[in-house]
């Protein structure tokens, strides 16, 4: 027996080695279009650097870290600098420079890829999934033909929701449509949040998108802020749970990046939501955020959920945290993208983040003239007037790049101007080794996603995955369930069978008819009126590029507001059900007494709305922020503090159900 056992022990390393060799010989999918393939040990590899030999970085049997180190060792200074740019994929037409359009300008993008050595880009292409996939494949062919064949990482702003604001979100064009992230905050369901991430991940990868410039871990503690709609609300613990689940869904698990992942970039590190008067940090008038109650640490809490999920990317915020002291030291009065304290000391040091830090867009641009003061009345702002170098306006562009790298940035968003980093290294102001650190992090993630072997997608299959019937059905159900029932007088909802005739405002008559209702042209002829309304807003800065697009100012309904006039007119004739799109916390004090039922929504299609009205689906949402009772109380609250108005009309966590007319708090 001892002899047999000894023989087995002697043989086991040999058996293990054979098993390992067998596993290594299992061919993975390799797709080459611009380069040749190599056959080594009866296996196929791409000859990405066209030297006729199998290099370590081309060998998919090697570990991702070993491959990335080899690749970076072969990269020139220019290629390392190019990798640190996160450019914009150009399209044709007037808005081509910021990528808004239906097809890419291949020649312009070829120059950025081959001449600028850039291999990370945002896409803002608005087209059907199959066409988007085809267009992305063409770009990957250009990248594969470059000296080292480094594939592109293609990123996007959110595409799965309702509100589209250039520079913050993109149109869906064929993707499943879900409620805004506020709707997920209203549901508070981490499993649903993760499921959304899993579906969005499949849709993105199907069209050749590899990186989500999301989620927002910002807190909507200032009710007037124009970007609350992209958050999960104002409560740090709620947002932390949602952020963590979102990342797990998109990245295909909580252990880091793998071949089926979409990289997530959590943003905006840190404190973005505490904007004075809600004025946004995209513009010079919003370049500071403020913490009157010293709640800066509270705004860090949601990001810890991202770190627990091994988030792959972090995007620093634009604004300067005014007069904040952290760890006994006052923060340098610069935007977070230039702050060594926030990026190196906190993010890398305290929170051990080892992924890619990519700046928000255009932080190295100048901001002078119209960028600071706005254009004269009647003139239209253009992308040429965009720049957010907050706190470093006095520096040259080159000095801003150098400061950003020294602070801890790996990539600069919205630029392809890699020559500045090259010149900085040659002038001795940066080291090539420092650029190599960032290039390594970026290349590592590309390898982990399997892009070096196959960056291409099946365009025909993209059309069947993105916006599939099953995904659309799940999205529609989430839209319905995320509605918050604020008022339901005399149990108006769900609608009884006696309700036959409807008067509609901002609702598709065809959808109502499909649910068995007759649509009438005047409220007095109806059994019930159904009105869609939006949270009121002002355009306080129409002569700024972003100010012209963002919702600012007053949140209350006033005479003359078209939606408010529609509510009053309908209510004067017939019981009225109103649904309010809560992209910010509306003040409903003078609406509450004019309705039979009141529903808050965070993006809902007419069909999803009628599913709730008819009782097919019960509303389950709870307010992810409180709804103030007056603008006076909004002005008196602290920008950095959650649910702190004196006498809110509806508290955080409020929401009725059809089963029981009781307030439910988280």
What do you see in this structure?
By secondary structure, the chain is α/β, with parallel strands linked by helices. The protein has 3 domains: 2-58, no CATH class; 64-465, TIM Barrel (Alpha-Beta Barrel), CATH 3.20.20; 481-636, Glycoside hydrolase family 3 C-terminal domain (Rossmann fold, 3-Layer(aba) Sandwich), CATH 3.40.50. It has helices spanning 2-24, 64-74, 77-83, 106-115, 129-144, 181-187, 190-207, 236-251, 296-308, 340-350, 370-373, 397-407, 419-426, 432-448, 459-465, 469-481, 509-514, 562-571, 606-613, 631-636, and strands spanning 37-40, 43-46, 85-88, 120-122, 153-156, 211-212, 263-269, 288-289, 313-316, 320-321, 325-326, 329-330, 356-357, 412-413, 484-488, 501-505, 518-520, 528-534, 576-581, 597-601. The chain has an 8-stranded parallel sheet with strand order 13-9-7-6-5-4-3-14. The protein has a 6-stranded mixed sheet with strand order 15-20-19-18-16-17.
Number of helices: 20
Name the beta content range.
5-15%
Q: Count the domains.
A: 3
By secondary-structure content and strand pairing, the structural class works out as alpha/beta
Radius of gyration over all CA atoms, rounded: 27 Å
- Helix content, binned percent: 25-40%
How many strand segments?
A: 20
The average pLDDT value, as a whole number, equals 93
Q: How would a crystallographer describe the biggest sheet?
A: 8 strands, parallel
Low-confidence stretches: 1-16, 18-22, 660-666
CATH class of the largest domain: Alpha Beta
CATH superfamily of the largest domain: Glycoside hydrolase, family 3, N-terminal domain
Topology-level CATH name of the largest domain? TIM Barrel
Distance between the termini: 65 Å
State the strand order across the main sheet. Answer: 13-9-7-6-5-4-3-14
**Overall shape:** globular
């Amino acid at each position: 027996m001892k002899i047999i056992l000894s023989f087995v022990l002697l043989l086991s390393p040999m058996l293990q080695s054979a098993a390992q060799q067998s596993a290594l010989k299992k061919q993975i999918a390799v797709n080459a279009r611009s380069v040749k393939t190599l056959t080594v040990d009866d296996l196929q590899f791409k000859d990405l650097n066209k030297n006729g030999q199998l290099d370590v970085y081309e060998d998919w049997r090697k570990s991702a870290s070993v491959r990335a180190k080899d690749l970076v060792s072969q990269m020139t200074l220019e290629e390392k600098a190019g990798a640190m740019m996160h450019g914009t994929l150009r399209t044709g037409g007037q808005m081509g420079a910021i990528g808004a359009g239906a097809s890419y300008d291949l020649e312009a993008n070829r120059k950025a890829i081959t001449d600028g050595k850039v291999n990370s880009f945002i896409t803002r292409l608005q087209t059907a999934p199959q066409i988007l996939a085809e267009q992305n494949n063409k770009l990957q062919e250009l990248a594969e033909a470059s000296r080292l064949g480094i594939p592109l990482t293609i990123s996007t702003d959110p595409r799965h929701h309702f509100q589209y604001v250039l520079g913050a979100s993109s149109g869906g064009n064929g993707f499943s449509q879900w409620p805004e992230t506020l709707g997920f905050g209203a549901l508070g369901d981490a499993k649903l949040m993760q499921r959304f991430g899993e579906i969005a991940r499949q849709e993105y990868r199907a069209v050749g998108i590899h990186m989500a410039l999301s989620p927002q871990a910002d807190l909507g503690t200032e009710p007037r802020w124009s970007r609350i709609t992209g958050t999960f609300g104002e409560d740090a613990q709620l947002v932390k749970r949602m952020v963590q689940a979102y990342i797990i869904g998109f990245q295909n698990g909580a252990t880091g990046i793998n071949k089926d992942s979409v990289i997530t970039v959590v943003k905006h590190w840190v404190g973005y939501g505490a904007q004075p008067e809600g004025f946004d940090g995209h513009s010079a008038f919003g370049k500071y955020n403020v913490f009157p109650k010293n709640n800066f640490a509270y705004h860090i809490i949601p990001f810890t959920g991202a770190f627990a999920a091994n988030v792959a990317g972090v995007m620093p915020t634009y604004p300067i945290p005014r007069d904040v002291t952290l760890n006994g030291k006052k923060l340098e009065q610069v935007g977070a993208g230039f702050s060594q304290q926030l990026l190196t000391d906190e993010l890398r040091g305290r929170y051990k983040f080892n992924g890619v830090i990519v700046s928000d867009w255009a932080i190295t641009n100048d901001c002078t003239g119209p960028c600071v003061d706005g254009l004269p009345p009647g003139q239209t702002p253009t992308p040429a007037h965009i720049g957010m170098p907050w706190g470093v306006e006095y520096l040259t562009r080159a000095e801003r790049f150098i400061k950003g790298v020294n602070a801890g940035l790996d990539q600069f968003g919205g630029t392809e101007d890699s020559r500045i980093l090259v010149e900085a290294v040659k002038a001795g102001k940066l080291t090539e080794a420092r650029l190599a650190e960032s290039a390594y992090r970026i290349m590592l993630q590309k390898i982990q996603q399997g892009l070096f072997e196959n960056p291409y997608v099946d365009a025909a299959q993209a059309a069947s995955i993105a916006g599939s019937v099953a995904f659309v059905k799940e999205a529609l159900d989430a839209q319905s369930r995320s509605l918050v029932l604020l008022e339901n007088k005399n149990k108006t909802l769900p609608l009884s069978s006696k309700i036959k005739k409807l008067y509609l405002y901002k609702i598709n008559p065809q959808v109502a008819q499909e649910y068995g209702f007759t649509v009438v042209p005047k409220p007095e002829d109806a059994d019930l009126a159904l009105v869609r309304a939006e949270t009121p807003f002002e355009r306080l800065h129409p002569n700024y590029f972003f100010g012209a697009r963002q919702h600012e100012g007053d949140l209350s309904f006033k005479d003359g507001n078209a939606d408010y006039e529609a509510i009053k007119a309908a209510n004067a004739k017939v019981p009225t059900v109103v649904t309010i799109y809560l992209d910010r916390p509306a003040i409903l004090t003078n609406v509450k007494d004019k309705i039979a039922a009141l529903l808050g929504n965070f993006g809902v299609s007419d069909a999803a709305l009628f599913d709730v009205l008819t009782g097919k689906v019960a509303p389950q949402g709870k307010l992810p922020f409180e709804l103030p009772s007056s603008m006076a109380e909004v002005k008196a609250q602290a920008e950095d503090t959650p649910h702190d108005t004196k006498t809110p009309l509806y508290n955080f966590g409020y929401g009725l159900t059809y089963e029981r007319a009781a307030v439910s708090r988280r």
